[in-house]
Design brief:
Elements: H1 14-48, H2 52-55, H3 57-80, H4 83-99, H5 106-134, H6 140-168, H7 174-179, H8 181-191, H9 198-210, H10 214-218, H11 221-245, H12 248-253, H13 264-292, H14 294-305, H15 309-314, H16 318-336, H17 339-345, H18 355-367, H19 370-381, H20 383-403, H21 416-419, H22 421-425
Helix pairs in contact: 1-5, 1-6, 1-8, 3-4, 3-5, 3-18, 4-5, 4-8, 5-17, 5-18, 6-13, 6-17, 11-16, 11-18, 11-20, 13-14, 13-16, 14-16, 14-20, 19-20
Length: about 425
């Protein structure tokens, strides 16, 4: 067992540490590679002679393909265990991300970003499932917050890499993708040291004893209805998150359509600072969810987002834009801090490999057109209004959907109730 009996609430044994570190680093590097496109898609567009509106679809295709990866790798993980699919996944997306450095034109880069989306989709679901199955259940929110903060940490690293490689060293955007393979290899080394999930092993035994299939579990009415609900919840979450992040670097540098007109270096330093706010928010609210519950902290983060929108979107100086973006990242990403724990606790043991990841990534499909929509709205109503309207609507949706949903905070995955969940649908 690698749950509470194996370690005190905040201390992890070596297997738990390796699983947690590998999942954190894997998710961090996924975000690093994703946000490289956000930071340099204007530069890539200039090199390839492609408009910003068309370049925005590089992020869209990545988001659209993430459910494919979540489904393929997740279903594989529910059949053979978490460990092998995670190792294959990190090898796959590391190679694809590296090859982006050598794309000769927009079409090739588009195909590579499509393939990268498959790898990115597999990483979060499997990494979060393995981590939440291994860490102490009474502190899942704490570790959930740190794990989800890896997304913002990846964005922060991408911003720093841009400053060092492009702004300071004057190198091409291609170098950013070439260098991204190094930390991905570290994640791969850690993954090889992780033992299989005991929760998965116990569940497999139970499936055989009850002669229950994964398909039977998924198509149980209650579990299927919960799946659909979680997809809509994650659509609202992703719309809120991407609404505050994807177009913001472009808005900070734009000199038209109400853009802030800041220098690329200033805009990137603001991105560094607001990602620090995001990391602190994830860990803070994720930890609080262990005490207050997942629903309460999610609603708190989304509710605090609403009054910050004017400061975030309509400020006109670097200081206030920096403050507004840091605060809104604290609240929006803070709401996200509870999500790895929340989705895994709401998932049946038998299908936890794909259930959390696919709900998350299908929600991303709905939110995938956020950047193209904001980019298309900007010339018509201005960047500030394009961001304000999309973020406000998404935050309200998160509050309402969370309020009407359920939670399973701190549920024991090895409890009789969870293990008999298979038998109840057979």
């Amino acid at each position: 067992m690698t749950t509470d009996a194996a370690a005190p609430a905040f201390r992890l044994n070596s297997d738990q540490r390796n699983a947690f570190a590998a999942s954190l680093l894997g998710w961090m590097m996924d975000a690093f590679d994703y946000f490289l496109i956000v930071l340099v898609y204007a530069d890539i567009g200039a090199d390839f002679g492609v408009s910003l509106e068309k370049m925005a679809y590089l992020t869209t295709i990545t988001l659209l393909m993430r459910p494919v990866g979540a489904y393929l790798f997740g279903l594989w993980a529910d059949k053979v265990g978490r460990r092998t699919p995670l190792i294959v996944d990190v090898i796959f997306y590391s190679i694809v991300g590296f090859l982006c450095a050598f794309a000769p034109n927009f079409t090739v880069l588009f195909v590579l970003r499509l393939l990268y989306g498959i790898g990115m989709g597999g990483e979060w679901g499997l990494g979060a499932a393995l981590t939440m199955e291994k860490v102490p259940r009474t502190r899942r929110g704490f570790y959930s917050g740190i794990l989800q903060a890896g997304y913002s940490a990846g964005y922060l690293l991408a911003s720093l890499a841009f400053l060092l490689v492009v702004s300071a060293a004057g190198l091409s955007w291609r170098w950013l993708f070439a260098l991204s393979i190094l930390p991905a290899l570290i994640s791969l080394i850690l993954r090889t040291r992780v033992r299989e999930s005991e929760v998965w092993e116990t569940t497999q035994t139970n499936l055989k004893l009850t002669q229950t299939s994964i398909r039977t579990v998924f198509f149980n009415g209650k579990i299927l209805r919960r799946f659909i609900y979680l997809v809509f919840l994650m659509a609202a979450f992703n719309w809120m998150s991407h609404g505050t992040q994807d177009i913001y670097p472009t808005f900070l540098k734009a000199t038209d359509a109400g853009g802030a007109g800041l220098s690329p270096v200033t805009a990137t330093w603001i991105a560094v600072i607001y990602n620090v706010g995001a990391i602190v928010g994830c860990i803070t609210l994720g930890s609080l969810s262990d005490r207050w519950g997942r629903k309460a902290t999610i609603i708190l983060g989304a509710a605090l987002t609403l009054p910050l929108i004017p400061l975030f979107a309509f400020s006109t100086t670097a200081f206030w834009l920096c403050l507004g973006s840091a605060l809104i990242q604290f609240t929006t990403q803070g709401a996200w801090g509870a999500i790895p724990a929340h989705l895994n606790e709401m998932s049946p043991n038998a299908i936890r490999g794909f259930y959390p990841g696919v709900t998350y990534q299908l929600g991303n499909v709905i939110a995938a057109f956020n950047l193209p929509i904001q980019q298309a709205l900007a010339p018509r109503i201005g960047y500030p209004w394009a961001m304000a309207l999309t973020v406000a609507g998404a935050a309200v949706a998160v509050i309402l959907l969370t309020a009407f949903g359920r939670q399973a905070k701190g549920v024991d995955f090895q409890s009789r109730e969870k293990l008999e969940e298979v038998a109840s649908v057979s």
